[in-house]
C-alpha cells in the first residue's frame, strides 16, 4: 500500500518545554514543518485555530500566537491537503490564498517548483552550521553555512551556459526550465526504478541531496539518486582535526591521538578558538584537499603569504592553497 499525505499538529518535548508545529507527512516521512526556521515553544498547550477572519494560527498559553499564515480578511474558509502534499487555505471559490509549497523547508515534493533565489535548508541538531540547497541562475549547488562563510561542496550546471528560471521534481528526475518554460536540463535517477519519484530531500546529518521513490517490496523510501556517493565527498565526513583518507576512513591530523575511524574525536585535549592566544602555529599538510569551496581570498600570491593571511585572522582555522596557475588562497573559519 502506497503511503499517503497527512497533516498533523505536532507537540514534542525539548528541554522542559514543548515545540508546537503544524506538519505534513508522506507516510512516516516529515516533508513540511511550520516551525522549520523559527520553532514555537510553549509550556502548557498547543492549539491550531482557523480564526473567523481566516487566519490560521498556532497558539500557546494566554492566547499567545507563535505562528500564523497572515491571511486575515482574504475570505479563507477551510484548510485542506491536496493530493500532491500541498497544504492550502482556500476561499469559497476554492481559490488558494496560502500554500505550504510557497514556504519550502528541507524537502521538495513531486510537482513542486522552486524558483531561482529560493533554497532548501537543513539544520543539524547539535551544530552551529547548516546545509542549504540553492537554485541560482546558472546552477544548483549545495552549501555548508557557518557564520558569515558559505562553502559550496557540490554543484550542477546546465550545458551551454543556459540560465535557470525554476526547477521542478518530475516522476523520473529533477527538471530545469528557462523563462519560456522550456526544459533545458535534468538530473535523472541513477537506478532503474519502476515507481515514480516522490520527493527530494536535503539530509540534516550528512548534507547529501537525494531523490527518493517508494519501494513496495521493501515498504520504505529509497534513494534513486544521491549527489554525493562516497564518504569523503561529504562536507563533514570526519570530526574536527580529522582527515578522510582514500579508504573512506578518518585519520587524525598529526596522529594527535591513536584513535581512527569515523567517530574518532581527534580534538581531545585541544581547546577551541585561537583569538586571545599569544602563539598560534600553522601545520602544513601536503596532498590534502577539501571538498569545501568559497571565493578565494587572494589570487597570485605565495603559499607563505596565504598562511600569513590566516595567522593574522584569529577566526581563521585553516588555509587552503592551490599552487596552480592562479595560485589561489582560501581561508576557512572556525
TrEMBL record:
<feature type="domain" description="Apple">
    <location>
        <begin position="275"/>
        <end position="334"/>
    </location>
</feature>
<keyword id="KW-1015">Disulfide bond</keyword>
<dbReference type="Pfam" id="PF01453">
    <property type="entry name" value="B_lectin"/>
</dbReference>
<keyword id="KW-0325">Glycoprotein</keyword>
<dbReference type="InterPro" id="IPR036426">
    <property type="entry name" value="Bulb-type_lectin_dom_sf"/>
</dbReference>
<dbReference type="InterPro" id="IPR003609">
    <property type="entry name" value="Pan_app"/>
</dbReference>
<keyword id="KW-0732">Signal</keyword>
<feature type="domain" description="Bulb-type lectin">
    <location>
        <begin position="1"/>
        <end position="102"/>
    </location>
</feature>
<protein>
    <recommendedName>
        <fullName>Bulb-type lectin domain-containing protein</fullName>
    </recommendedName>
</protein>
<dbReference type="InterPro" id="IPR001480">
    <property type="entry name" value="Bulb-type_lectin_dom"/>
</dbReference>
<dbReference type="InterPro" id="IPR051343">
    <property type="entry name" value="G-type_lectin_kinases/EP1-like"/>
</dbReference>
Amino acid at each position: 500500500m502506497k503511503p499517503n499525505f497527512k497533516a498533523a499538529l505536532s507537540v514534542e518535548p525539548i528541554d522542559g518545554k514543548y515545540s508546537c508545529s503544524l506538519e505534513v507527512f508522506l507516510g512516516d516521512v516529515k516533508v513540511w514543518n511550520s516551525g522549520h526556521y523559527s520553532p514555537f515553544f510553549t509550556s502548557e498547550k498547543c492549539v491550531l485555530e482557523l480564526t473567523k477572519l481566516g487566519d490560521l494560527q498556532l497558539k500557546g498559553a494566554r492566547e499567545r500566537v507563535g505562528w500564523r499564515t497572515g491571511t486575515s480578511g482574504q475570505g479563507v474558509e477551510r484548510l485542506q491537503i491536496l493530493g500532491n502534499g500541498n497544504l492550502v487555505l482556500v476561499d469559497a471559490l476554492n481559490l488558494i490564498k496560502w500554500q505550504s509549497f510557497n514556504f519550502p523547508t528541507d524537502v521538495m515534493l513531486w510537482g513542486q517548483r522552486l524558483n531561482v533565489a529560493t533554497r532548501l535548508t537543513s539544520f543539524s541538531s547539535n551544530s552551529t552550521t547548516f546545509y542549504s540547497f540553492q537554485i541560482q541562475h546558472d546552477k544548483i549547488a549545495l552549501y555548508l553555512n557557518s557564520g558569515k562563510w558559505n562553502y559550496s561542496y557540490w554543484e550542477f550546471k546546465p550545458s551551454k551556459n543556459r540560465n535557470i528560471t525554476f526547477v521542478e521534481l518530475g516522476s523520473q528526475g529533477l527538471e530545469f526550465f528557462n523563462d519560456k518554460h522550456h526544459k533545458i536540463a535534468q538530473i535523472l535517477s541513477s537506478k532503474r526504478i519502476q515507481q515514480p519519484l516522490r520527493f527530494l530531500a536535503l539530509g540534516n546529518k550528512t548534507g547529501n541531496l537525494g531523490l527518493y521513490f517508494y519501494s513496495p517490496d521493501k515498504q520504505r523510501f529509497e534513494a534513486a539518486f544521491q549527489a554525493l556517493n562516497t564518504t569523503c565527498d561529504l562536507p563533514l565526513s570526519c570530526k574536527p582535526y580529522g582527515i578522510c583518507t582514500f579508504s573512506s576512513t578518518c585519520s587524525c591530523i598529526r596522529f594527535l591521538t591513536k584513535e581512527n575511524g569515523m567517530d574518532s574525536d581527534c580534538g581531545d585535549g585541544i581547546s577551541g578558538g585561537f583569538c586571545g592566544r599569544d602563539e598560534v602555529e600553522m601545520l602544513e599538510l601536503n596532498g590534502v584537499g577539501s571538498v569545501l569551496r568559497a571565493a578565494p581570498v587572494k589570487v597570485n600570491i605565495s603559499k607563505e603569504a596565504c598562511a600569513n593571511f590566516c595567522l593574522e585572522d584569529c577566526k581563521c582555522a585553516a588555509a587552503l592553497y592551490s599552487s596552480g596557475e592562479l595560485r589561489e588562497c582560501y581561508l576557512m573559519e572556525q
